[in-house]
Design goal:
Elements lengths: L12 H16 L2 E2 H8 L3 H13 L3 E8 L5 E7 L5 E7 L4 E7 L4 E6 L8 H18 L3 E8 L3 E2 L4 E2 L13 H5 L7 E5 H12 L7 E7 L3 E7 L2 E2 L31 H4 L1 H8 L16 H13 L3 H25 L3 E5 L7 H14 L2 H5 L2 E4 L6 H16 L14
Parallel strand pairs: 4-7, 7-10, 11-14, 14-15
Antiparallel strand pairs: 1-3, 2-3, 4-5, 5-6, 8-9, 11-12, 12-13
């Protein structure tokens, strides 16, 4: 049975109405019953009945008086974000990271597993299961697990079609391994789509109805929200921009294509660039570093004013910009949010990306599209894994709160 961020249609009208109220409080903060009724179209009687049930089970609580219309006093309601927590798991090629978040997207703790190599994958899965089960056993606030996995992720099968440099991940069936592995539900989503969901739920500068999250890290991916919904495709591999060719006669990619964007602006591509004779010495001992560490050291040098480091950052930015051009022409989002490891290149990269995009995109499209760096305080993919689980809670709260969907006698 597939579990993904796009699932979770409320099972009944009462559940739908609960979800509408919870979502309103999630997005708008403390609100009165009258404000909720006006926004949702529910009657005052329905609001009173539903909120009483939600208060009874501790999902929401009253906060005291608010100033109402005509100077009337009303009682505020808020969602009890801190009462419920989710486990978030980020799978990257050589990295597995786990975090605990509350429903507001606030990170409580993060744990990095040791770097993973191809022959470590089976053990890593087993160790992760044990770690999560132990965490759930000692933390009664955890109601779900969200996982973000690299693409192309075949959500109908539960496996990754191809993972450049780490093919053993392709042998793992995530649904079979994790669907029934824990005492709480598990939801699995493509990493870039998870990031898009995180930006929509937790980002501060976001139009949640139209955005593209452009993930540039160990791989390159994209998640697109259009009309408030994730674009997934028939098998879950839509918006896989990392394997769109920007040079038909270019570098061969492990996916079988040539000139894939990922071959030019992933962490591995940056390390390969730093190993070129003309770039030797920009990052000391680069040949011994993991690609993500090489990138981070390059960006530190660039921020400190190294002209050579800034030259390399601008070259990387050129390829990132080509991705933005394809995103704008292919999907026309209102906002492109650049995240993951290469977003740490900062303003130097962003300025160069905007300059190149302005040269290559119709002015009307450029003027209506903002390109920004992710503002999430925690890694957007890890936060995205939390968002995958949180989104399910917002859609179907009764699934996570024992007894709430049982009719009162």
């Amino acid at each position: 049975m597939k579990q993904s961020a796009s699932e979770g249609t409320p099972s009944s009208m009462s559940e739908l109405n609960r979800s509408r109220i919870i979502n309103f409080l999630f997005h708008h903060g403390i609100s009165s019953r009258a404000q909720i009724a006006k926004a949702t179209g529910l009657t005052a009687a329905a609001i009173t009945k539903i909120t009483a049930r939600l208060i009874e089970y501790g999902v929401i609580s009253e906060t005291g008086d608010l100033e109402g219309a005509l100077n009337r006093r009303s009682i505020g309601l808020r969602l009890n974000n801190a009462r419920y927590q989710v486990i978030a798991v980020k799978f990257a090629r050589s990295l597995v990271q786990i975090g605990i978040f509350d429903l507001s997207g606030s990170c409580k703790e993060i744990h990095d597993f040791p770097p993973i190599h191809n022959n470590d994958v089976v053990d890593a899965v087993m160790n992760l299961k044990q770690y999560i089960n132990e965490t759930i056993a000692r933390n009664g606030s955890i109601v779900a697990v969200g996982m973000a996995v690299p693409g192309p992720y075949l959500s109908d099968e539960g496996r990754i079609a191809s993972v450049t440099t780490m093919q053993m991940w392709g042998k793992v069936n995530f649904l079979r391994e994790f669907h029934d592995a824990f005492a709480v539900p598990t939801f699995i989503e493509h990493d870039a789509r998870s990031g898009a969901l995180a930006q929509s739920l937790f980002g501060s500068q976001i139009d949640g109805n139209s955005l593209a999250y452009y993930l540039i890290g160990e791989g390159v991916g994209m998640g697109v929200i259009d009309g408030g919904a994730l674009i997934c495709g028939s098998r879950g591999t839509a918006t896989e921009i990392g394997h769109i060719s920007i040079d038909v006669d270019g570098r061969p990619c492990e996916c079988g294509n040539f000139g894939c964007l990922e071959c030019y602006c992933s962490t591995r591509a940056v390390k390969e660039m730093l190993l070129k004779p003309e770039n030797r010495g920009i990052v000391e001992h680069v040949e011994t570093l993991l690609p993500r560490e090489a990138c981070k050291r390059l960006f530190v040098k660039s921020s400190a004013g190294s002209a050579k480091a800034q030259r390399v950052v601008r070259e990387i930015s050129r390829y990132i910009a080509y991705g933005c051009v394809n995103i704008i022409n292919g999907y026309n989002p209102r906002q492109i949010i650049i995240g993951d490891i290469l977003s740490q290149a900062g303003q130097t990269m962003l300025d160069e990306v905007k300059r190149i995009v302005a040269e290559r995109v119709l002015p009307e499209l450029m003027d209506s599209t903002s390109i920004v760096l992710s503002d999430l305080p925690t890694d957007a993919t890890l936060t995205g894994a939390a968002a995958v689980a949180t989104n399910q809670f917002l859609r179907n709260p009764s699934r996570f709160v024992e007894g709430m969907d049982t009719p009162k006698r």
